[in-house]
Amino acid sequence: MATGGVNADLAKERERATFDSEQLTNFLYRGPEKVRRKRYLQNLAIQDPVFKKAPLWAFLNREQQYATALKKHLHAYRRIQELGITEPVEKFYYREAAAPHENSPIGLHESMFIPTIEKQATEEQKRKWLPLCHSLKMIGTYAQTELGHGTFIRGLETTATYDPVAKEFILSTPKLTAMKYWPGNLGKTTNHCLVMAQLITKGKNHGIHMFMLQTRDMETHQPLPGIELGDIGPKFGFFDNDNGYMILKDVRIPRENMFMRYYKVLEDGTYVTPPGDRLNYLSMVLLRSAITSMIGQHLSQACIIAIRYSAVRRQTEISPGGEEAQVLDYQTQQYKLFPALATSYAMLMAGRFMYDFYLKTTAQIEKGDLGTMPQLHALSAGLKAFSTWECTAAIEVCRMSCGGHGYSHASGIPKIYVDATPGCTYEGENTVMMLQVARFLMKMYTNLQKGQELPSFVQYMTKSLDTKSCMKEEVAPKCLVMAYEHRASRLIKAAADAIQAMVMSGSSPQEAWNKNTVPLTWAALAFCHMFVVKNFFEMVEDAKMDGQTKAAFMALCKLYAVNGVITHLGEFIQDGYLNNQQVQYIQKSLLDLLAEIRPNAVALVDAFDYPDAILQSCLGRYDGQVYQALYDFAKSSPLNEKEVLDSFFDYVKPVQQELEAMNQPMARL
Ligand SMILES: CCCCCCCCCCCCCC(=O)SCCNC(=O)CCNC(=O)[C@H](O)C(C)(C)COP(=O)(O)OP(=O)(O)OC[C@H]1O[C@@H](n2cnc3c(N)ncnc32)[C@H](O)[C@@H]1OP(=O)(O)O
Ligand SMILES: Cc1cc2nc3c(=O)[nH]c(=O)nc-3n(C[C@H](O)[C@H](O)[C@H](O)COP(=O)(O)OP(=O)(O)OC[C@H]3O[C@@H](n4cnc5c(N)ncnc54)[C@H](O)[C@@H]3O)c2cc1C
Predict the structure, then answer these.
(1) Which GO BP annotation is one of this protein's (predicted)?
(2) What is the best residue among 153, 194, 240 to mutate for testing ligand 1's pocket, by most ligand atoms within 8 Å of CB?
(3) Does the Cβ of 110 fall within 6 Å of ligand 1?
(4) Which CATH architecture has domain 281-634?
(5) What mean pLDDT comes out for the span 592-599?
């Protein structure tokens, strides 16, 4: 353990902040009462001896990591029930504190399997399955992706063929590429899964549908006949999880195992048409809607670590013989870290909007109103892709900004990165998601041309493109938002014009689309960026907090917007919307904002309110005693348990002896 109180530099940082970080914490977690409850639940978990005694993941091999993750998450699952915690966000606080760096081997059971039963199963199916799920007799996952197809789910090859005589479906993965591959926790942990398969009845393929499949015996845990399954091996991250593969050889399941809330097959094999399209994609939409907040949290942790460390780390004397500067005082370091910090807040705000929108829209869907599904799909796909791209890039910036120590697992950042980056791939590969957004935007653009009403969040398309920016020396939020709207509008028009021109000269619409997918993704990205900026400004303006806290928060918000203009400058100036003078105002504003944020940087990360026990970072400690912590971490490496390792005698000694013998003068003759 490190000793010595709070590092003097870090203490000074907290004293010089111009606002009270607790106010921002209260805003982030939706009120002081919720903050109090969060801390209470986190402390319960942190003090629990089962979690406290668990070994640090970094020194364990894969099997040990899996076992530790399983033990911790199962204990957390049980304690959550004992403590009567029912709110999803409260369960999250408890679980995060219980197992901060262990990905849950029952994560898919909780995040996709149970929610899918709740949303897609009939009342009878729910009565049968949910109690078994809650007692963990049934542990399930979501088995959709196959070896040959992940993105193109209409192309999945697993079949579910209905046999009206036996009143059963026959599940089969008829070739190598059809085997299920990747589903989380499928390999070793779960005994059930929800299988996505092509439904064939009365000789007709009705496309992909969901089926409940028991994969293992509920007592012995042995795989059931006709099912071969296992772990897919180590990965870049999620080391402690058993993503799995599964081969099905004509496995029979009862007709009642098809999820039949919206889609039905009658006993005689008649297919009943559902009330709407793509309802069985809703489980993906749920997780996509949650990812923006999740990835924003990952980045906020990386920012805490990198910014606290940069306040403690001193490197290079500024004037000869003078004191070495805190690296956070270098403008270049600020330019790395403050945009990352602003991005984390921007994504937390976007995630807040997204999840509320998901709840509102799914409540309408539950009532049979499917009208807002396209908006929900576009926004959840777009924000998922945009936020994971932006945040993973920023996490890597945080890591590198910690110099050499950022490369060590002692910093905590490499683990954050490897667990965050698959967010760009799972729940829909990001480019593919952006193309779904582009598809929606093109539809909206066509509707606009036909004079139809547009949903509120694409109203910006109605504004004339024949304008110039209102940006003045004092860079105003209104002008920044308008610049983002202009860019988004212009890019969708440019893509639409290019497609239309190709169609006019004889290409098919599909061909024209495929020849323009790059500009289409630019347009989709610009839309998402605009949405995040606008939402961030709106949330800061509406936030109930004192003037100083709001000013500190607003500086971050402005930085997010200003930095985005500079990073994508070409797209803002291509049509002359911003002139040279205005670009200079924005560049100056960026530097001014870095200086304005500097005294508040530590308080702004303190506001995220992560206890050390969750961060588990030698560099991100609240007390800033990083060097003692790094030394302690090194001392605890298992390689240091013995002064001289057996491998020295096994390998080094014999080779030394051989080389010595070879190099004897006599031996060379
Ligand atoms: C609990 C705590 C622990 C948590 C731990 C968790 C850690 C995480 C663990 C990791 C867990 C990872 C878990 C995993 O990874 S689970 C596996 C995730 N897999 C995917 O996400 C696959 C991605 N692919 C797709 O979603 C589809 O194939 C896409 C969408 C690409 C195309 O699809 P399709 O080929 O069918 O469609 P189309 O392009 O012809 O377009 C046709 C129309 O359909 C509309 N459309 C499309 N989609 C939707 C939709 N959703 N709602 C409403 N509408 C939709 C579309 O707008 C268009 O409309 P229109 O233009 O005609 O009007
Ligand atoms: C950690 C992790 C956990 C996962 N958990 C689960 C799970 O629980 N359940 C489950 O079912 N699956 C799971 N998956 C699988 C995941 O959902 C898929 O990997 C993901 O949907 C991407 O599909 P893919 O692998 O087929 O990528 P591909 O589609 O093969 O992507 C390869 C490249 O092709 C490009 N591409 C593909 N199609 C197009 C197109 N139409 N237009 C332009 N470019 C295109 C992509 O942009 C990408 O660059 C998991 C994956 C990971 C990494």
Answers:
(1) fatty acid beta-oxidation using acyl-CoA oxidase
(2) 153
(3) yes
(4) Up-down Bundle (1.20)
(5) 98
Distance 147 CA to ligand 2 centre (A): 10
If we measure between CA atoms, which residue out of 63, 24, 175 comes closest to residue 539? 24
Annotated binding-site members for FAD: 145, 184
Burial status of residue 518 (CB atoms within 10 A of its CB: 0-12, 13-18, 19 or more): exposed
Note whether 296 and 394 are within 8 A (CB): no
**Residue 149's Cα: distance from chain center in Å?**
22
Return mean pLDDT, the chain: 96
Amino acid at 39: R
Structure confidence by residue, pLDDT tens digits, 317-354: 888 888 999 999 999 999 999 999 999 999 999 999 99
**Lookup: tokens for 97:** 């504190």
Task: Report the alpha-carbon angle 500-503-504, nearest 5.
Answer: 85
Which listed ligand is nearest to 361 at the C-alpha? 1
Q: Which amino acid appears at position 417 of this protein?
A: Y
pLDDT at 2 over 90: no
Q: Among 64-73, 315-324, 497-506, 513-522, name the one with the lowest average pLDDT.
A: 315-324
H/E stretch holding 128 reads helix 123-134
Rounded to whole angstroms, the Cα distance separating 87 from 92 reads 9
Closest CA to 489 of 518, 448, 452, 453: 448
Question: What pLDDT score does 276 carry?
Answer: 83
Residue ranges of the domains in the chain?
Answer: 138-274, 281-634
The active-site residue out of 110, 168, 427, 571 is 427
Q: What is the distance in A from the centroid of ligand 1 to the CA of 288?
A: 9
Residue 668 has pLDDT above 90, yes or no: no
Residue 427 a catalytic site member: yes
Distance CA 590, CA 602 (A): 19
DSSP character at residue 192: E
- pLDDT digit string, tens, across residues 214-268: 999 999 999 999 999 999 999 999 999 999 999 999 999 999 999 999 999 999 9
Chain-centre distance for alpha carbon 47: 28
CATH architecture of 138-274: Beta Barrel (2.40)
The two tokens of residue 458 are 């694409």
Dihedral over Cα of 386, 353, 398, 318: its sign: positive
Query: What are phi and psi for residue 143, nearest 5 degrees?
Result: -105, 95
Gap between the Cα atoms of 246 and 228, Å rounded: 6
Residue with CA at minimum distance from ligand 2 atom 48: 429
Pocket of ligand 2 (CB under 6 A): 108, 141-145, 149-151, 182-184, 238, 243, 422, 425-426, 428-429, 431-432, 435
Q: 444-474 as b/e, with b when 16 or more CB fall inside 10 Å?
A: bbeebeeeeeeeebbebbeeeeeeebebeee
Average pLDDT in the 448-477 region?
94
The whole-angstrom separation of Cα 214 and Cα 252 is 10
Q: Compute the average pLDDT of residues 192-218.
A: 98
CA–CA separation, 658 and 669 (whole Å): 16
Helix 21-28 to helix 32-47 angle, to the nearest 10 degrees? 90
